[in-house]
């Protein structure tokens, strides 16, 4: 197991069966990790939106437990993807590290822009 950053196409990602041995597989892994990092930011954005909409006084109806369950599932999915990204970075592959950071930054930019646009138009909760 690698314990320092390295650049190369030969790597194992999360499981011993997920091994890249050629440039095409490596490029696909880097792309998938990049998209996964954006998806993590999306889950955080959806969770934030959901919390803003569910706390606006609608929790007194008879399905309050369902709203809470949806909030817990969103929180769990966001937390799980965060830990998986941490484990992915711990592969110590430079390209994968750059893909994670780039995906997180791009996802933050996209969803921050959407949130600001919604707030300017009066659509967002806060």
TrEMBL record:
The protein's GO terms of the molecular function aspect are: copper ion transmembrane transporter activity
Q: What stretches pass through the bilayer?
A: 24-43, 64-86, 92-111
* Pfam families referenced in this protein's UniProt entry, alphabetically: Ctr
Keyword Transport attributed: yes
The UniProt keywords, alphabetically, are:
Copper, Copper transport, Ion transport, Membrane, Transmembrane, Transmembrane helix, Transport
| Cellular compartment(s) | Membrane
**Membrane topology per record:** Multi-pass membrane protein
Q: Give the chief site where it resides.
A: membrane
Q: Spell out the InterPro entries in the cross-references.
A: Cop_transporter
Q: Does the keyword Cytoplasm apply?
A: no
Q: Which GO terms describe its cellular component?
A: plasma membrane
For this chain, the family text in UniProt reads: Belongs to the copper transporter (Ctr) (TC 1.A.56) family. SLC31A subfamily.
Task: Please state what the protein is called.
Answer: Copper transport protein
